[in-house]
Design brief:
Elements: H1 14-24, H2 51-54, H3 57-72, E1 77-79, E2 89-94, H4 96-100, H5 104-110, E3 115-127, E4 132-137, E5 145-152, E6 154-160, E7 166-172, H6 173-186, H7 191-194, E8 201-202, H8 203-210, H9 215-224
Antiparallel strand pairs: 1-2, 2-3, 3-6, 4-5, 5-8, 6-7
């Protein structure tokens, strides 16, 4: 998933992306290429890792590289298939800086709060309740496109961390959305598969035409066209 200082989504503009990168990371850190929609790896179910693989140095190295890549993008989540690795591994993080770049009214509406860096290996997701909420989403594998996506407001995730320790995460609001988005990647599912019909838009047009509307107002406007 992406990160943003505009009033909607997770992708920052080019200057914000450069500012965050320059402040937070050394140029020598490894950055992976992000796979774009259309690559077959994004449509395959990711392979689960064995206990030996989870704690292997190769996995630790990949986690570090994915963390750097996610932060440099910048984004709030990244799944291994998005960097061309078909394994059940994802990382998520929503920093105070990224949250502060989003309109405060939208932050409250999205129930968005700071999420510390988390590693999810072989994650299993369980819906906490049936309530769903709808917001615009983006994806690092989809460039500057945005779309309305309805997701569960509250979920549980059980996953191993980078040390092989199995942990349970209860998430609500934006954190729950990030987790669902990344775990979808591990099942070969993209947010465009779940989007509300006719809601696909570029980031520029989202900002110009749709960012001031609620999801229901967007639905009504799209039906009227």
């Amino acid at each position: 998933m992406t990160a943003s200082d505009c009033a909607c989504e997770w992708v920052a503009d080019s200057q914000a992306r450069k500012d965050i990168s320059d402040r937070m990371f050394r140029r020598s850190e490894k950055v992976l290429d992000i796979v774009e929609v259309g690559d077959p790896v994004l449509r395959k179910v990711a392979r689960r890792l064995s206990p030996e693989e989870i704690t292997a140095e190769a996995t630790a190295s990949l986690v570090r590289a994915m963390r750097t890549t996610m932060r440099r993008a910048p984004g709030v989540g990244l799944a291994a298939p998005q960097v061309g690795r078909g394994i059940a591994l994802a990382v998520v993080e929503d920093t105070e800086e990224l949250v502060s770049r989003t309109d405060s009214a939208l932050v409250r509406l999205q129930e968005r709060r700071v999420v510390p860096f988390q590693v999810l290996i072989n994650p299993e997701l369980e819906v906490d309740d049936e309530e769903e909420v709808e917001f615009y989403e983006g994806c690092l594998s989809l460039g500057n496109f945005r779309m309305l996506v309805r997701r569960h407001r509250s979920v549980w995730v059980r996953a191993a961390d980078e040390n092989g320790e199995v942990r349970e995460i209860h998430a609500t609001g934006w954190h729950a959305r990030i987790l669902q988005h990344e775990i979808d990647h591990l099942n070969g599912v993209l947010c465009i598969d779940r989007m509300t019909g006719r809601s696909l838009t570029t980031l520029a047009n989202y900002t110009k035409h749709w960012s001031h509307l609620t999801s229901e107002e967007v639905r009504q406007a799209l039906r009227a066209r």
